[in-house]
Amino acid sequence: MPGPGPYLLHPVAKPLVFSLTLLPFLWLLYGAAADLLGPNPAEHLIRSTGQWALRCLCLTLAVTPLRVLLGQPALARFRRMAGLFVFFYAALHVLCYAWFDMGFEWLEIVRDIARRPFILAGFAAFVLLLPLAATSFNRAIRALGPVRWRALHRLVHAVAGLAILHFFWMRAGKRDFTEVAVYAAILGALLAWRLWHRWRATRAKVLS
To answer: For residue 72, what is the enclosing H or E element?
Structure first.
């Protein structure tokens, strides 16, 4: 297997990845300030923050397959950062919805969650992200222990399913599923790889 690319271990690598992943937020911030987000800036912000949460989720789930397939274990050092950016953009998505759509009317937000299935699915995905973000630090890993920590972080699979369901139901009214299908295919392939890899590892233990 090839050794780790020197660029992956370079001290600048993590700040560079952090900056690149933060760029969409900075662009949205600039676009909102400069009135560049089109005729409905609120809708643009809600939609864009949700899409970037989904893209970061795809990136997070792609780290392990790429690490194994490319023989680059150093890629693992970016996974936690990518996962935290999933939470960051998902939190912005929820904030934009609560602010621009609902005016921080909390009772109306609760009713909206109960009334509309796609809001419920998205909210459930965000709730599942909360413990993942809260335990994405070394102290939490030590407190939980590696086995329980890994079991907890398998909730990311449920997050992926709920995120796709949220996106699907949101687009159902417009009957536009092209983008949904792309994300579903990517996440489905990544989750299928994980299941296959786990099955192969279990089978190897049984046969050894």
So the answer is: none
* Rounded CA separation 62/194 (Å): 10
Q: What's the DSSP call for residue 1?
A: -
Read off the pLDDT of residues 143-181 as tens digits, 9 standing for 90 and up.
999 999 999 999 999 999 999 999 999 998 778 899 999
What does the block give as tokens for 13? 């690598």
User: pTM of whole model > 0.85?
Assistant: yes
Going by the DSSP 8-state scheme, the letter that residue 73 receives in this structure is G
Collect the ranges in the chain with pLDDT lower than 70: 1-5, 208
DSSP structure class, residue 105: -
Give me the numbers of helices (H) and strands (E) for the chain, helices first please.
Answer: 10, 0
Instruction: State how far the alpha carbon of 6 is from the alpha carbons of 68, 75, 109, in Å.
Output: 17, 11, 49
